[in-house]
Design a protein that fits this description.
With 198 residues, this protein is an alpha+beta fold. It contains four helices and twelve strands. The chain is globular and about 45 Å long.
Length: 198
């Protein structure tokens, strides 16, 4: 049985968008119960010799968590962080481990009926299959991300495990550029609260 929040056999997910280099948008979603919060992109400190999909580390109210580029991890190209954009960081909580997922835009909290979820074609992916299903909503195809698989294949963040990560973490905590990370927009915050409390 999957871990999505289900109310009367309805699955609740947070939908988001990532864009390829061609700017063609792709729609994805993750289970709402695995999203702890949604953050405006703030200071992200790079990790030396990190994997290409690792954007760096962020300070989440004193807790240091890694930030992964969903675009890059899916093989769609690198996301360039822009201050004047709709980019967000989904803070996921899987097995009591927090990880930030950088996406181009958070769209909505949507409800999906299990009967509307189609299987992912077995020959659709050459490498790791990070998806648990496909659903069509208002004519759009939305890929349901298997966040546990996605993060399981992302848990080695650097090419050299003997790097100075402790020093990076210490510097990040003490950085004068970080006072308090900005919260999510009030509209999305209220939407998430309403859906979780239903």
């Amino acid at each position: 049985m999957s871990t999505e929040i289900m109310i009367n056999d309805i699955i609740q997910v947070v939908s988001f968008t990532v864009a390829e280099k061609s700017k063609k948008k792709g729609n994805y979603c993750v289970s709402i119960d695995q999203v702890k919060e949604i953050r405006i992109v703030d200071t992200v400190t790079k990790i030396p010799k990190s994997k290409s999909y690792v954007k760096g580390l962020m300070n989440l109210r004193g807790k240091i968590i890694p930030v992964l580029d969903v675009n890059s991890k899916l093989g769609l190209g690198e996301t360039i962080i822009s201050a004047n954009s709709k980019q967000r960081i989904l803070v996921t909580d899987v097995n009591n481990t927090l990880t930030g997922l950088l996406v181009d835009e958070v769209n909505d909290v949507i409800k999906i009926s299990p009967k509307d979820i189609d299987d992912v074609p077995s020959n659709a992916f050459m490498d790791n299959n990070f998806f648990k299903g496909i659903v069509k909503i208002d004519g759009n195809i939305i890929m349901i991300l298997d966040i546990e698989k996605f993060l399981t294949h992302s848990n080695n963040y650097t090419d050299n495990h003997n790097n100075s990560s402790n020093q990076i973490e210490s510097n990040l905590k003490n950085s004068k550029n970080i006072s308090e990370i900005n919260g999510i927009t009030p509209e999305i915050d209220e939407l998430i609260k309403q859906e979780i409390n239903k």
